[in-house]
Amino acid sequence: MKSLKSPSDLEKLRKDILAKKDPKRLAIAACVSTGCQALGAQKVLEAFDEEIKKQGLEGKVEIKETGCLGFCEKGPRIVIYPEEIYYFQVKASDVPEIVSKTLISNEIVERLLYTDPVTGKKARYLSEVPFYKYQNRLLLESNRKLDPKKIENYLAIGGYAALAKALFQMTPEDVMKEVKDSNLRGRGGGGFPTYRKWESTRNALGEPKYVIVNCDEGDPGAFMNRALMEGNPHSILEGLIIGAYAIGSHEGFIYVRQEYPLAVENMETAIKQAEELGLLGEDILGSGFDFKVKIHRGAGAFVSGESSALMTAIEGKVGEPRPKYVHTSEKGVWDKPSTLNNVETWANIPLIINNGAEWFASIGTAASKGTKIFALAGKVNNTGLVEVPFGVSLRDIIYKIGGGIRNGKKFKGVQTGGPSGGVIPKQHLDSPVDFDELTKLGSMMGSGGMIVMDEDTCMVELARYFVNFLCDESCGKCTPCREGLKQANKILNGIVSGKGTEEDIKKLEKIAEVTSVASLCALGKTSANPLLTTLRYFSDEYEAHIKEKRCPALACKELISYYIDPEKCKACMICHRNCPADAIIGEKMKIHVIDQSKCTKCGTCYDMCPPRFRAVKKVSGEPVPPPIPEEERLIKRAKKEKRD
Amino acid sequence: MYEDRIDKIIDKYETEKGILIQLLLDIQHEFSWVPKEAIKRISERLKIPCSQIFRVASFYTALSLKPIGRHLVRVCVGTACYVRGAPRILDSVENKLGIKSGETTSDGKFSLETVNCLGCCALGPVIEIDRKYFGKLNSAKLEKILSSCN
User: Fold this and answer.
1) Using CB atoms, which residue from A35, A38, A302 is nearest to B116?
2) How many independent structural domains does chain A possess?
């Protein structure tokens, strides 16, 4: 394709691409994002390749690779065009049937459609699937229409029209005003108004100015940035170029964690294609505006997601934060004014320019506008990416979209905001989700991770997990974070192993206070949130651990014991064979008994015991029942007796 | 024997500013670790003190200063995987391979690491072996996957 020299060149190319599209053409689109890949999407694609040849359809069916559609739980997912039939949990062995039935005879393979677990109804269209029905997918919607490696696909859905509009019909000031009026707030965690960051860099002295995409996504449990960058890299790039134009920057960086190789690859391809078409580089679309961008891979450090640390990392140094008396928007990369926004923030920009600030500001709550993508994970039925307008309640997200808690268990809490956030309990399930509401509850929005926990998750252990995580990830530069977290970790380790004392809670609260006030960067300042929210909402669990040496969730290894219920054991030998510690005494026809002195409490027997027996039990805070005497262990089965 | 390969990687970046981390990541990708020779060579050619390179290499988790085994097993212990039983998976891998996280088996076949998040949170627990992801794991699946590594 040749370089575009004007907006009309762009529109002409778009028309050409659309004219070549045959809406009736048979096509298979498969999600090849990391999630579906982990479930075997590649094998499904290979099977299609082979089967299409075998059944004589070569050249008649287009195979498209698209980005993440969000419903990872039910992957691998494919769509058959032109009918738009969605098949979920497709295996390579299903492929011959799909080809012969759906592609050749235009029949639906019913069993691969989504089945509503409540009504048992099959969903013929995507809009009938509850997971999608209640979402408003402004950002994620395009993922299903695009092959992220093809810029033509992005152009076909109106891509880069916002860039042309900004460059030719708007001054940088107009763009600034639009972003200001839209009330867009940063999607990376803090919810800082995007406009203010931009303005600060725009007005700061010093050249060059930098614009940066933050795709560090270090929050464990969040993967919306990965899905956007893997699935629709051009939307981020377009937003970035528009931002650069408004701010007066000619150089940008895209910071991507190296744990996301596919995101890096797709973004590299996107940059190359945009450069070839003259949408990036010198004299973009003949406007006279120049902008170039480079990818910087992050080498794995949670703290490097913090703005000043990320910028130091871009300079090739150890990514540690610095005090921010002077904001990075004024002195950032190499001490030059730098604006850093999250992937999702940048991806919103083209939407705002195309549809106007008024439209954007009409979505969401009074102070949080637009939609937000959440990564719904943990003990919920439908895990995946959920995009909803701000203001939707936690209950709607977890129950209506997420389909409730797995295996009929009870909801205990939902953790939002990653290690900087907190756990929100049942009584606040009806709270609307926006930046300020979550902060009020002691948690935060963070980048949108939402991990649901049921009765089997121990809240003290969860607090220990986060504090331990942060302890590992603390860069060690400031004392409150480095030493405070270490001490808190020690105390929590004591509590979960039954060595807690009543002073521990007070000590933890004191440490939390100091780290939140005196730490250098946001990692330390927010590090107490998981601890404080669990102390606030689940103090009974702390007390049970400390006073009764009991773990109510039956999760803390040191406080639980396993035993086999002699009434239920069928002497099937499964636990006996699988016990890594050889702690199970038993043989065929003899009820098994756990030797408590050898048991390492790994839980293998608990997992392995067939669900129809459920003979392995857990207890905490009480002794295990004594084993039944040797002579009573023999099982007499009715059938055998008859034969005798 | 490393020199040519190291030089080739340095050639790609030599004139650019702030590329140390990118360079080290490429070295890591090429050799699966960062050998001493690479640090020396980078220091010579880019005029960066060895100590500074070592500091960067030891700070980031993606860079390894020890050689790793033929297969790199990374167990995700991110929150989503964690609540869905990642500690149990880690225990089983440690038991099966007879090593702890951060170690390599004596025959050099496996190295084991934990990782904070692989971004496949909807499919937890997840592990990654040699850059391939495996989701919705349980002990039986794990056994099959590990024994398929030669």
Assistant:
1) A302
2) 5
